[in-house]
Amino acid sequence: MRTFGILSLCGLTIFLGACGSGSPAVDKVAIEKSVQAVEAGMVKAAAAKDVAAFVSNYAPDAVMMTPGEPAMRGQDAIKAGLTGMFADPAMKLDFASDKVDVADSGDLAVTSGAYTLAVTDPVAKKPVADKGGYVTVFRKQKDGAWKVTLDIATSEVPPVAPPAPKAEKKAAPAKKKGKKR
Length: 181
Known about the structure:
alpha+beta, disordered N terminus, 6 strands
């Protein structure tokens, strides 16, 4: 009888623990689709060269890190940092995640994938192509929207080598003045 009582108590504890959590199950597939839809909207905004629509997908405290540039902190800094690029007639940005990880809590998601970017080189005034990888962290907002909180891109294209220093002209050796023998 005592064994039956202990088993019953254990079974009841397991049942109540499973039922009493109060938290609905996290639908990771739905979250993955939502985050990928945000990224697809960002690609459309980039194609339309709509910097405001693109940046609206970032949380107010977001950080963006891109190759060769200081980190941009906050929506205003991100918008300021991207405005020139979006105004470039040659600018084309495309990216797509090939992996989405959703936190068990359902409030964070991380995407990673590849990007391609075409812009005009400001010095050479010619189009240049860049490609690389990215990692983006999304956080679910109070209103249920998914916003970027951290966006990091790494280029696969080596940086342009600095120009070689100009060679100094060597002066012709000075003729020695002196007596001829």
